[in-house]
Request: fold
Amino acid sequence: MITSRPEAQAEDEGDPLARLRQRFVVDDDGPIYLDGNSLGRLPAATAARLQATVERWGRDLIGAWPGWIDLPTTVGDRIGALLGAQPGEVAVSDSTTVNLYKLAVAALDARANRSVVVYDPHDFATVRYVAQGLAAQRGLTLRAAPSDPIEGLETSDVAAVVDDEVALVLLSGVNFRSGARVDLAAAAGVAHTHGALTLWDLSHAAGAVPLDLTHDGADLAVGCTYKYLNGGPGAPAWLYVRSDLQAELRQPIWGWFGQRDQFAMGEGYDPEPDVRRFLTGTPSILGLAAVDVGLDALIEVGMPALWAKTSRLVAFLAERAEVRLRPLGVSLASPTEADRRGGHLSLGHPQAWPLCRRLAQEGTVVVDYRNPNVLRLAPVALYTRYVDVWDAIEAMAEALQRGGLEGDTEPRSRVT
Amino acid sequence: MITSRPEAQAEDEGDPLARLRQRFVVDDDGPIYLDGNSLGRLPAATAARLQATVERWGRDLIGAWPGWIDLPTTVGDRIGALLGAQPGEVAVSDSTTVNLYKLAVAALDARANRSVVVYDPHDFATVRYVAQGLAAQRGLTLRAAPSDPIEGLETSDVAAVVDDEVALVLLSGVNFRSGARVDLAAAAGVAHTHGALTLWDLSHAAGAVPLDLTHDGADLAVGCTYKYLNGGPGAPAWLYVRSDLQAELRQPIWGWFGQRDQFAMGEGYDPEPDVRRFLTGTPSILGLAAVDVGLDALIEVGMPALWAKTSRLVAFLAERAEVRLRPLGVSLASPTEADRRGGHLSLGHPQAWPLCRRLAQEGTVVVDYRNPNVLRLAPVALYTRYVDVWDAIEAMAEALQRGGLEGDTEPRSRVT
Reply:
């Protein structure tokens, strides 16, 4: 337990990952950034990599494509190493939303005699909306698992709603709001017992918490690259399809990047036999280049070392919030048990939005706001220090003590 | 008619658009680039714009999003100005393939009592494959218009296959291979007479030929930004939905960027009332920034001036090919009538692929190859000179005269 700022500084001095902070663009005089779960920081190497990519476009023009065309799978495999996936199971393509749609349709087509999709009513908006769209189009029933909005989804919640009518269990590995982790292996076990397929959205998990998709029996997964993977705003997303499902599953958007012998442009669509059949149109090369760079530090250190630090930082945040913020009306909006938490901690307060704005305007701390009254704080192992956690909580306490946060009518909006 | 190299040079000296070439990164000692219909050249301003975007990401982090979030529609409106669309009818989103899928489903849902899709069997692979995928999923019949692979699709070809069973007429404005233009207004007239909707792929038309979607009665359209719009490899695509159709049509991929009051993250999907309902997931900000820059020169000059030059360059190419290449076994693979051609000219030769490779390897001319025996040559008004056309044809004639092109077994591949 760290109980003073000097102790936090001492933790940083002994932190074997402290050196990684300089691999990112950080203004030490700027605000403490606890919003890497929304948009990860800029890696120091990204600008040069993009510059080189642009120069290659300008110089080699169409002749550069042979060096670009395999990026969806080569970068995908690097992401796969962080997910516990096998080579050939991950590709970078489209957005998380589009990948959710593609893989959900693939799963539903593979279970066409079933009519129920199980989902978490507290899941992120896009996950719920994609499910709603498919339910409307295909006449499916959406069945909500009875999860707790803060404590998260228990295996028993999944078991309560999965039966042999269920085609697909669609869940997130880490809840976007509370940070609650799901026991993916247990959920997959329940789904598979009933013959259902699983699709995980791992946007808030990949690069933050340890994942072992192979061991956990994952069928399908997707995630973004702009949070913990540091790929930049709106960077292309990834998708995972377990290798032994690839030949069986078909996604609905038949495009030329999914076609076997693509440049023959044959008459009929004949998809690649492997993960490339889940690609669609021409991939974003700038986006892929930025994602590739964003992965470097994560892959170098590996998820066990990152999680060892992240989990300590999150626990430290929770401790300091308990000591300093609870007396000021702040409640924990993440699971009470530390081992059920992911890479961010959520705190509730009636004036969460004006507090978020005040901290940002004063340049002390950048935290994330979510309707209606939650702040999300993500101490990212790659670039957040123990002293940042100390200082951030102190700044929040000071801002709350000063008061006057009522009556802020600024519209509430923040991009995840 | 230009009959000598000095005459071509004189044309360049009198060309009011000649100054635009310096707005692009061009190595005057490099090969003549006639492949801007595949990947447009790099605008000189793109690197700095991307650098500024990356710096903003690094500095403002999540705080930069308010300045980014409207880019899909603000950049979309700038593209719309080149298409003859109204403000609010174009958005930048996803890839061409994904947009084709989204808008085709929207149209088919709006004509759910009909079961036929009319398409052009000589259309680009992705257009055909998207149609095949939808036919397979929805039990639709694909009905091929009897188009000529070189002369293109006549209005009578459309009229021959459109009847009251047709839900959607799916065509490209300029054929990817032959460069043949379609009379879009006439095709729309035929479709509308029978109550069908139209969806145009304008990837090879936008920024190359004059378009007037409003006047032509277009319903839906899509296109890429990496050809004549100079957005870079795999840059995000655009989509167009006529304003009076927007409230009626729904696309199938329900994501949070299509949601009204997005950050409220309400329980049910409630799409925006306007073109934003055709957005899906988080947009690529690097891609949008590059597209925005790529449009500058086009918008500054306007399509009439660009087309005045492009059509002259294409005609000049055809003249020189007739004089110099026809005696060497090269045939015209574009429409015989000049006013049916778009922004590129296609030439057939049994050794098209080895010729393409020889020209590239010798660093004289970069042309585009398409299976099985076609070279595509695109003289782009923004950066191609009359003297480039002269020199390119001379280099091709020289390479053919030298002979020895038979027996090249190199695999054939080239990204469009």
